[in-house]
Amino acid sequence: MKRMLLLGGVTEALAIARTLGPEHIYSLAGVGRVPTDLTCQVRVGGYGGAEGLAQFIRDEGIELLLDATHPYAAQISQNAATAAQMSGIPCWALRRPAWQPQAGDDWREVSDWAELIEALKPFRRPLFTLGREPLQHLHEIPPEQFWTLRALDVYPGNERCEVIGARGPFVIEEERDLFERRQIDVLISKNSGSTATEPKLEVARERGVPVLVLKRPVLARVDREFELVDEVLAALAECNMTDA
User: Fold this and answer.
1) Burial label, 61 (beta-carbon count in 10 A; 0-12, 13-18, 19+)
2) Is residue 122 domain-shared with residue 202, that is, in the same domain?
3) Is residue 102 part of a domain?
4) Is the pLDDT of residue 244 over 60?
């Protein structure tokens, strides 16, 4: 029986973890809720870069590394690919397909924070759905703007920003209410590809609200790449690595 290390981060990773037996390890960075109802082992915390991860792989006798981290966690994905190569084991990755703009969408791709701030200048009531990153820039909010920032947990804002703590999946009726109450005139989003957060894009389309989309990073090459959980589970079943 091979032993696998599953690097979590996206919702789909938990679905995979639920099929794993006690010999496997589900690894989380520690952001968000930690599941307590799994049969597999759960590890929380970092590894100290690629070398630390490679040492963990060797110490634990890991034979397959599965990267199911967020599409924007480029450094973690690079560390995973490098550590697997250093350890002489295969690295697989579950990578969500990106959202594609539809008729009626007004998407404007930005590469980094500086480009985003420049693109924000014409707007007054932005809704940020980038996680915690905007918290580092609250002192930069111009006087004519008021930011609404949605993250997994509530954090302190200021007189120019309110932080909402909320976890998906989100329903479209609640998103419509959020846009209406706060008079959102621009949405800022990563292209995460998650159905749990897609309703915000539908509401932006309905209301004619532009979307500033943070460009996806280029991720490390791996031995096998999957787009769907079912594809991963089928491949794992071939290796006798799931209980399902």
Assistant:
1) exposed
2) yes
3) no
4) no
Q: Based on the domain organization, do 207 and 140 belong to the same domain? A: yes
Question: Which domain range does residue 196 map to?
Answer: 107-214
In this structure, is residue 244 part of a structural domain? no
CATH number, domain containing residue 34:
3.40.50.720
Which of helix, strand or coil describes residue 84?
A: helix
Q: Which of 36, 37, 58, 38 is nearest to 47 (CA)?
A: 58
Q: Out of 5-9, 80-84, 194-198, 211-215, which region has the weakest mean confidence (pLDDT)? A: 194-198
Alpha-carbon distance of 13 to 75, in angstroms, equals 18
**Among 180, 181, 193, CA closest to 219:** 193
| pLDDT digit string, tens, across residues 203-226 | 999 999 999 999 999 999 999 999
State the Cα–Cα distance between residues 134 and 155, nearest whole angstrom.
11
Instruction: Report the distance separating Cα 73 and Cα 59, nearest Å.
Output: 25
